[in-house]
Target: HTH crp-type domain-containing protein
Amino acid sequence: MVKQLLMDYLEQNNIPVVIRKKRSYLTYEGIPDRYVYILKKGIIKTSVVTHEGREFNLRYMNDFDIVSLFKDESSQEVEAPFNVRVESEEAELYKIVRDQFWTDVNQNRALQDYVKEYYRKNLMYSMKKMQQMLMNGKFGAVCTQLNELYETFGVPVGEGTLIDFEVTNEEIARFCGITSASSVNRMMQRLRESGAIKTQDRKLLVLDIGSIRENIIY
Model:
């Protein structure tokens, strides 16, 4: 997607930027919300709560993009389909009243195309993630999440690629639908013993992404 198009729209219309601190929530699942949020800087996480009351993580975002855009053009408020929480020390986000945004989109063909591509991209991501979680066992699910962290936060260093973001085994478990963090501990130890990863300053250093990807059914 040509993100410069969206950037130009935000700047030309003087859309306000809000700053949120770490662990603060932008939206809560099921609670009506009347804003569209677009991440400018920082890291956010989306998640839902299962019927059993457990949190299931959906994804991290750390790049300029729309965070929450719910396809209901006529309503001023819609129920948020997921939780959105800030994971970096702070995050900067554009905050737009949703009916204003939809009015602008419907009057701008280029923005319409951008929004369509946004929905298409997120649908494809969701389908791929669901397929990987269903086709892989627990170990494969953990490897799938490590690969996503590698692609989202990976920074090349001397020995390999550093996942430049602290992620606990408990958080990885919540991405994989695993109820026990101790299960993830054992799988991570297995990857350490195989030489695929190691820990460096509380962050994961990926030494062999190929061996991790061998455990993923695409």
